Amino acid sequence: MDTNAVLDICLQAMIVAAKLAAPTLITALVVGLAISLLQSITQLQEATLSFVPKAVAVAIALVVCGHWMISEMVAFTNELFARIPGLIGGA
């Protein structure tokens, strides 16, 4: 196993991690921005008003994107397992 193979696996892992985190992070960002805008317009500074909608939106995003996230992770794991013989020099 050489350095290039390790770097390639690390790069792929970081790309998959970013792809899996993107739906929840973008949802929380958009909802947080909308709630912050609403709070600044109405001058209502309540912490739960910011937290609860973000938590609900992230939960909905996980329900909607969950199947895709699991499929991406399973595909990445299968690809890693398929690369094992080549990494240890067997094939």
Can you offer a commentary on this structure?
- This protein has one domain (3-88).
- The chain has helices spanning 3-42, 47-87.
- The chain is built from two helices and no strands.
- It is elongated and about 65 Å long.
- With 91 residues, it is mainly α.
- Helix content is 89%, strand content 0%.
Q: Percent range for helical residues?
A: over 70%
The CA-CA distance between the termini, in Å, is 12 Å
H/E series: HH
Q: Which structural class matches the secondary elements?
A: mainly alpha
The portion of residues forming beta strands comes to under 5%
Radius of gyration: 20 Å
Let me know the largest β-sheet.
Answer: none
Poorly predicted runs are none
The average pLDDT is: 91
* Number of H/I helices: 2
Give a count of the beta strands, DSSP E runs of length 2 or more.
0
Q: How many structural units, i.e. domains?
A: 1
Outline type? elongated
Supply database-style keywords.
mainly alpha, bacterial flagellum, 91 residues, flagellum, elongated
Strand-helix topology:
Elements: H1 3-42, H2 47-87
Helix pairs in contact: 1-2
Quick structural overview:
It is built from 2 helices and no strands.
